[in-house]
């Protein structure tokens, strides 16, 4: 009883101090916070939209109180440069929510430290080096061809009904197959695959929701039964069960019987250089972040080209001119397809898969845009708003790949007007592989099929699901009409 009384008094004193701090905090343009909630009650489910709207009122750098956590949001390329390059050494840690990010021993959610550097170097050398990417080129081309065969088979089965194709189904399969082969040396079985997709979908939904427990630090003193998160706890159990069965397999399987990147990780675990938690977290990073971000951008791009048939026609004209109809596109063709590359860049500009990037955390007090950002504050870079900033782009809401023909623009962290992979110390290590995969899959889909709306005249739903990953709210459905290139694929589909 005494403990609860002391805790209650401490909470009251802390909240009064926080409220005074909120009231006096005039160092940055801000929304006026509410007691305990901060600005949480003013946020829309899509935080990116709220932050973008507020920046139009208060300016390109704003303070937002997420419960008791000070959050700073920047929405211009100049401020992004400060966060990701100039002050990067003080802003490379991660703000973590315990229920979604574990303890931060993986690659994505760890603070910038020797541990992070070690994991990043391991992933770069083993998975994302130029040599590794080249070694697996034929595998990527084979899986892309298998995707086309699957679409043709489904079209043949439905040729009388002319049913639309659910584009996400094929994108998710081809990317996940590639990642799983890299990670474990094989594709998942049907049930493993189905369960993983369900788990990942649930995780994205959970990442788009929040509770006070996520944002009010002293609530950890409250007994767990009071703020139990049953949905997440059940999700965590389900995820670990799937992981043990599909990735780690039986406990008595010898390390040499494992394949892919997992074998390397298990060797390091055996040498006590990595913990089991780090192995689990790292593999999960690759399976989810690697697969989903790529598939999400391709789906947005396909939706834009169905809305803008002239763009689709230009890509197909380029493909027909460079490749013809006697063979399928390969990765070696990408360098000869400048307009296709521009389509990929334009999709990344308009529809970055993580529109706020992942949250950075200040390890020291820094100045951004002339304002003081204290140690411990969370910093978001609104890359979606930057990619649509009229100061950077003419007609920014228009899907117009030609803009990248008119001006050579880097999308791998050197041009701060478009930052789909971030920049600096926390830049995505798989940027080169992702760009190749997007161009290959998108190119083959357009080389082999013409795509149109499933219901002529009906508007495509271009709204997205809130959360760290910004996917299309309504999975894209479209009519796929085979083109001449599909004739090179043997029709062993009976």
From TrEMBL:
Q: Name one Pfam family in it.
A: p450
Coiled-coil stretches noted in the UniProt entry, renumbered to this chain: none
Q: What is its EC number?
A: 1.14.13.-
Q: Name one GO cellular component term.
A: membrane
PROSITE patterns for the chain: CYTOCHROME_P450
- Family per record: Belongs to the cytochrome P450 family.
The question of whether Transit peptide is a record keyword is answered with: no
Q: What is its subcellular localisation?
A: Membrane
Transmembrane residue ranges: 6-24
Q: What is this protein called?
A: Cytochrome p450 family 98 subfamily a polypeptide 8
